[in-house]
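User: Hello! My lab partner asked me to get a predicted holo structure for this protein. The small molecule is flavin-adenine dinucleotide, SMILES included with the sequence. Please write out the structure tokens.
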Amino acid sequence: MTLTGIGVTVRQAGPDDAVGGVLPRWVALPESVEEIAALLRACAEQDLAVVPVGGGTKLHWGAPPERCDVLLDMCCMNAVLEHAAGDLVVRVQAGATMDALAAELAGKGQELALDVPSGAGSTVGGTLAAGLPGPRAFRFGTARDLLIGITVVLADGTVARSGGKVVKNVAGYDLGKLFAGSYGSLGVIAEAVFRLHPLPAERRWVVAEPALDEVPAIALALAASQAEPSAVEVDRPDPDGPLVLAALVEGTAAEARARALRDVVGGGEVIGQPPSWWGRVPSGEVLAEVRFPPTATGAVLDAAAGAGTALRGSPVAGRLLLATDGQLAVSALRKTVEDAGGRVVVLATPDSGVDRWGQISGLALMRRVKERFDPGRRMSPGRFVGGI
Ligand SMILES: Cc1cc2nc3c(=O)[nH]c(=O)nc-3n(C[C@H](O)[C@H](O)[C@H](O)COP(=O)(O)OP(=O)(O)OC[C@H]3O[C@@H](n4cnc5c(N)ncnc54)[C@H](O)[C@@H]3O)c2cc1C
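Assistant: Hello! Below are the structure tokens for the protein in complex with flavin-adenine dinucleotide.
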């Protein structure tokens, strides 16, 4: 087996290249969409399994791959290809870091309205494929919602595009929706086209310490407030400690609107910088994401508090992250959350025996999509829901 002679830089893998403990044989460093396609064609001919990697910050999320021959490193595809500032649109290669993209856009007074923390090296492709929503998803949606076009390379080397700069559609499929949150299991995201927003003139945060059982009513009132918060988040790093609630307002008259929100919360202070935890994933060996409808906020917060973990997330968007270095009683938590209409996904855990995904509605459909895009099961096999 060989990957030489296809015009793609390939090196032998080392211990640092392991994905969930599975060591690939090679690391490939494509520099163009065509090179990704050539590489995936060669892998298809030799039945080699491929795991794409961006910044590598979340390779421990999802199950370890069943097999991994080639780590496809997107680091050389890191250009902002086209920033049409007048149209509030950007086209970017998937290996570009979110920091580099943010710097480029800020130069023209614009932003991609996600809250990915700076400094980690997270890439555009990894952010899309990992699919985690941030605080401002409440107002602007997730990376998937801000995506208006995507170029992907499928397991057989086919290049497919949808939306934005349309060249050719894969008939009947919304590629952006499918590839967002796909953990590299359907193919390689090569380029993305995003809708942008102007950088807000001002930002203010209202920060308060309500009791846990006051949060559902406060969240409802904040979500309905005419002061229009862009985000409302809670944070409780210590399961026995106080809970902090923070609400963000952006744009004109931010100070006055923040004071109006403070009245809704019933106290607190207005500050000009985010709390240190804002938009950050809480740390812990075990990390679970809970999604729930607004009606279930009280039940889910109680269940999360009972789980004895750090908790952080949005009571208005119905999303919490629970983190611990100890044990998380996943089955009990999942039962309570599912009874309330929500669901629990374990994003990261060192315990291979844990059911990461729980019951997934639509799993049969997802299997059919996997079969259509990657019938040979070469793209990140076993990483995703239901062993996809
Ligand atoms: C609002 C927000 C806030 C966040 N806050 C934090 C935080 O505080 N701390 C933190 O650690 N993380 C945080 N994250 C998550 C983190 O930013 C993403 O998980 C990260 O962007 C992953 O990027 P990466 O390049 O490191 O991906 P990687 O770790 O390289 O890959 C992640 C997954 O995507 C797949 N993948 C990577 N690139 C591609 C590609 N081109 N095509 C197909 N599949 C691919 C990989 O196979 C893997 O399954 C946040 C994310 C958001 C959106």
